[in-house]
Design goal:
alpha+beta; 3-stranded antiparallel sheet; 10 helices; Band_7/SPFH_dom_sf; coiled coil; Band7/mec-2_domain; myristate
Length: about 325
């Protein structure tokens, strides 16, 4: 009914293009307008002033010959003052913008390797925006924002990159684990050293206490029992300790000790047993090595004969008894 009377309505965020006898006449703002068709006036079409978005997928290759798909989002809108240019100069706005995006991306990405492409995607987006702004402003369009929303390399390349990243993280984890084990080993060694040090102090104090106790026992026994010497007291103490040790070994269920046969009386025969053993060993050695009596006399003169050794052991035994 309104068109019959020559009245038209233009919605908000839109403009209408008015023609008179096929020639551009005016840009109609939102609201009600009179378009007398009887005088050759008509609406050629409507143009939206809203921000529109165009997603462009562009496949290209990087400097290191890796093919990637770059996804760019272009946000644009028509300029009200240049609505006639936006309506008449371009027949396919989206295709025109897509061509410019392809041109800029395929000129920028091949200059960068794959890692740099990910790092400098903002620079790529800025280059696309500048090129589009310069080109589309002549056609009545404004580029609001250009975003590089995704960079998709080949699936095998992505898998390889993930494996590299995983290997690097495993290496770091291994280093950290080794450092932790190193710290544990150091702390364990420090604790073991401290434990042994304290154990050594305990043993030293124990032995000192034993020595002090033996000295006091010997002095007390010698003073209380007339006619006993210090040697007699020490022999009795050694025999007592011997039987105490045998008692402790017999009481243990996990004893793994082997004893050379000897008895308590061996305490007094230690010197004679050592002397006889050395004399026998020395005699066997001399019988194997000496081929003549002259050589034996020579060895005796040098102090290696059995008689001198026997005298030394006897002298040591005599001195110990004294």
């Amino acid at each position: 009914m309104g068109q019959t009377l020559g009245c038209v309505q233009v919605d908000q965020s839109n403009v209408a293009i008015k023609e008179t006898f096929g020639k551009f006449d005016d840009v109609l703002e939102p609201g009600c307008h009179c378009v007398p068709w009887c005088f050759g006036s008509r609406l050629a079409g409507h143009l939206s002033l809203r921000v529109q978005q165009l997603d462009v997928r562009c496949e290209t290759k990087t400097k290191d010959n890796v093919f990637v798909t770059v996804v760019a989002s272009i946000q644009y809108r028509a300029i009200t003052e240049k609505a006639s240019d936006a309506f008449y100069k371009l027949s396919n706005t989206r295709a025109q913008i897509q061509s410019y995006v392809f041109d800029v991306i395929r000129a920028s990405v091949p200059k960068l390797d794959l890692d740099s492409t990910f790092e400098q995607k903002n620079d790529i987006a800025k280059a696309v925006e500048e090129e589009l702004e310069k080109a589309m402003s002549h056609y009545g369009f404004e580029i609001v924002q250009t975003l590089i929303v995704d960079i998709e390399p080949d699936e095998r390349v992505k898998r390889a990159m993930n494996e590299i990243n995983a290997a690097a993280r495993l290496r770091v984890a291994a280093n950290e684990k080794a450092e932790a084990e190193k710290i544990l080993q150091i702390k364990r060694a420090e604790g073991d050293a401290e434990s042994k040090y304290l154990a050594g102090l305990g043993i030293a104090r124990q032995r000192q206490a034993i020595v002090d106790g033996l000295r006091d026992s010997v002095l007390a026994f010698s003073s209380n029992v007339p006619g006993t010497s210090s040697k007699d007291v020490m022999d009795m103490v050694l025999v007592t300790q011997y039987f105490d040790t045998m008692k402790e070994i017999g009481a243990s269920s996990k004893t793994n000790s082997v004893f050379v046969p000897h008895g308590p009386g061996a305490v007094r025969d230690i010197a004679s047993q050592i002397r006889d053993g050395f004399i026998q060993a020395n005699t066997n050695s001399q019988s194997c090595q000496c081929a003549s009596p002259a050589k034996a006399e020579k060895l005796k003169a040098k102090g290696r004969g059995p008689s001198r050794f026997t005298n030394m052991v006897s002298a040591a035994e005599t001195g110990g008894r004294t």
